[in-house]
């Protein structure tokens, strides 16, 4: 039976008033209209509050001081949400018109965690392409997320609120900043495996200078992930490849060479064997 679930859209933001307008307009254009949007502003002074007040009474505005921890903003928004499902939209991203309609269709089929692919749009370009990492998850989903890494953009996720509350939502530990979403999905998968990849690319992710992670931060993220989830076990291939790539970015080719020793070429998938060879040729040409 068709059910119009109330979907609460959680939008943290900070000094992105122009980009936020595009995100909010994409919500207003949705074919599905049983939603509320909750904007949580980290004390911007760029007209964000005034912008949100121009919209209708389905878009709510709150201000908090999150001290650089976006999980605090998201959790605050969740605490104000009235919907039985939560959707997450970063303030520099936007959705296609049928995103919520398609998502609700699959919610009514009984799924508790829905996600989809999105297009990546870079600053100063009109070209877009799908993300390279969004994939169908294999059961056990916890093991897939651990062993194969992030599997979908946060701005694609729609999740059962009651179940998400059961894992206490996002972890506000500063060591998880910029990967608190991935951590939350891992923890959710331990209590519920009812995930579904909605067909199609139903939104766009804006990539620019203000949301690019530097190599040192990405390396710290991988280190903290391994401390929390891997401990003394062998580091997953995706982590090693990430560290290898980051070493190349930092032009630390001797360090990159060391990471090759952590990979068994013959155990790699075909695509990873190609990546391995490309990296190896490049690194050894530089040494």
Counting DSSP H or I runs of 4 or more residues, the number of helices is 11
Instruction: Work out the oligomeric state of the chains in this entry.
Output: single chain
Order of helices and strands: EHEHEHEEHEEHEHHEHHHH
The CATH architecture assignment of the largest domain turns out to be: Alpha-Beta Complex
Sequence stretches where pLDDT stays below 50 over 5 or more residues = none
Q: Kindly report the CATH topology of the largest domain.
A: Spore Coat Polysaccharide Biosynthesis Protein SpsA, Chain A
* Whole-number tally of structural domains: 2
Q: How many strands, what sense, and barrel or not for the largest sheet?
A: 9 strands, mixed
What is the averaged pLDDT score?
94
Global morphology: globular
- Note the beta-strand portion: 15-25%
DSSP summary, beta strand count? 9
Helix content: 40-55%
CATH superfamily of the largest domain: Spore Coat Polysaccharide Biosynthesis Protein SpsA, Chain A
Structural class category? alpha/beta
CATH class of the largest domain: Alpha Beta
Could you explain how this protein is built, in words?
The chain has 11 helices and 9 strands. It has 287 residues and is α/β, with parallel strands linked by helices. It has 2 domains: 205 residues, Spore Coat Polysaccharide Biosynthesis Protein SpsA, Chain A (Alpha-Beta Complex), CATH 3.90.550; 72 residues, no CATH class. Strands 1, 2, 3, 4, 5, 6, 7, 8 and 9 form a 9-stranded mixed β-sheet that branches. Helix 8 packs antiparallel against helix 9 and helix 10 runs antiparallel to helix 11. The longest helix has 17 residues. It is globular.
